[in-house]
Design goal:
- The structure is a single chain.
- By secondary structure, this protein is of the alpha/beta class.
- It has one domain: Vaccinia Virus protein VP39 (Rossmann fold, 3-Layer(aba) Sandwich), CATH 3.40.50.150.
- The protein has 8 helices and 7 strands, in the order ααβαβαββαβαααββ.
- The protein has a 7-stranded mixed β-sheet with strand order 3-2-1-4-5-7-6, sandwiched between helices.
- β1, α3 and β2 form a beta-alpha-beta unit.
- It starts with a helix and ends with a strand.
C-alpha cells in the first residue's frame, strides 16, 4: 500500500465529513488576529504559549502538514508570510477558502511532509507542525528536512502523540475499556491482523502509526535542533484522557 496516497484520499474524505480538524476558522477569528488577538494549537486543546513565537510580522512561515483552514490562516492574519504544505488537496482548499473570504495572502503546496525538496535550504524562519506525523511511517526524515529548510536561528514548533496511546485495543477503548494489546511502535501493517487491517482500510479513515520518543524527541536533536520548550496536553473524549495527557508539543531551534 502507498500510505501517502491512501491517507491523502482519506483526509479528503474527512473534509467532506467535516472532521473537526478540517473545519475552517470563522471570519471573526481572522479579524481578531489582524488586530493582534490570536492563539493557535499544536495539540487538541492547550494554546501554544505566546512566548514560543517570534514577532510574526513579515517572517517566512511554513505550515507543515497543517492544512484545514485553521492555524495557518490565523498566523497569516497575524502578519506572517505563510506557505501551507499538506498531503490533502481538500485540506489545502480550506486554507484558500479562508484566504479568499477574509482577504489573506498565503500559498498552498501539496506534498509529503518528509520531502521538502521543492524548497531551497534556509527558506523559512518558522515551521509550525501540529499533530500530524502519526500519519507518516517514518518521521526522522521530517525532522531532517525541517532543519534543512529553516534559516539559522529558526524555530520548529511541533505537536505529536505520546506513543502510549497506541498500546490499547482500539475497539475496547471505544467502549470505555483500556486493555493493553499492542507492542510499540504500532503500525497497521504489523500490529493488526489481516482481517482487522482490511476493515480499517474499508472504513477509509486515515491510517496512523505510533513513533518512539527516541524518534520524536531524539530525532529532532539528532537532526541538529536544540529543544527550548515542552508541554503536554490531553485529548478530550478519549478514555485515556481520564488518566494521562497523551499529546506532546515541543519548541526547537536551529542553532544560529
Amino acid at each position: 500500500m502507498d500510505i501517502r496516497d491512501f491517507n491523502r484520499q482519506a483526509w479528503d474524505r474527512e473534509v467532506e465529513l467535516r472532521n473537526r480538524w478540517t473545519v475552517p476558522v470563522d471570519s471573526a477569528t481572522i479579524a481578531a488576529a489582524k488586530e493582534g488577538r490570536w492563539e493557535v494549537i499544536l495539540t487538541p486543546v492547550k494554546p501554544v504559549p505566546s512566548a514560543w513565537f517570534p514577532d510574526l510580522k513579515g517572517i517566512d512561515l511554513l505550515g507543515l502538514a497543517s492544512g484545514g483552514g485553521q492555524q495557518c490562516p490565523i498566523l497569516a492574519a497575524a502578519g506572517a508570510s505563510v506557505t501551507v504544505f499538506d498531503n490533502s488537496p481538500k485540506q489545502l482548499a480550506q486554507d484558500r477558502l479562508v484566504a479568499e473570504r477574509d482577504g489573506l495572502t498565503l500559498e498552498t503546496v501539496e506534498g509529503d511532509m518528509a520531502d521538502l525538496s521543492r524548497f531551497a535550504a534556509e527558506s523559512f524562519d518558522l515551521i509550525f507542525h501540529p499533530c500530524s506525523n502519526c500519519f507518516a511511517q517514518l518521521i526522522r526524515p521530517v525532522w531532517k528536512e525541517a532543519f534543512r529548510v529553516l534559516r539559522r536561528g529558526g524555530l520548529l514548533l511541533a505537536g505529536f502523540c505520546n506513543p502510549a496511546m497506541f498500546i490499547f485495543d482500539e475497539e475496547l477503548e471505544d467502549r470505555g475499556e483500556l486493555k493493553v494489546r499492542h507492542a510499540l511502535p504500532f503500525s497497521p501493517f504489523t500490529s493488526l491482523t489481516e482481517e482487522e487491517r482490511a476493515k480499517a482500510v474499508a472504513r477509509g479513515a486515515p491510517l496512523s502509526f505510533s513513533h518512539t520518543l527516541d524518534d520524536q524527541i531524539g530525532g529532532q536533536i539528532d537532526a541538529g535542533f536544540v529543544l527550548t520548550g515542552f508541554y503536554e496536553d490531553y485529548f478530550p473524549g478519549t478514555e485515556l484522557a481520564k488518566y494521562m495527557p497523551s499529546m506532546i508539543a515541543t519548541r526547537a531551534q536551529k542553532p544560529a
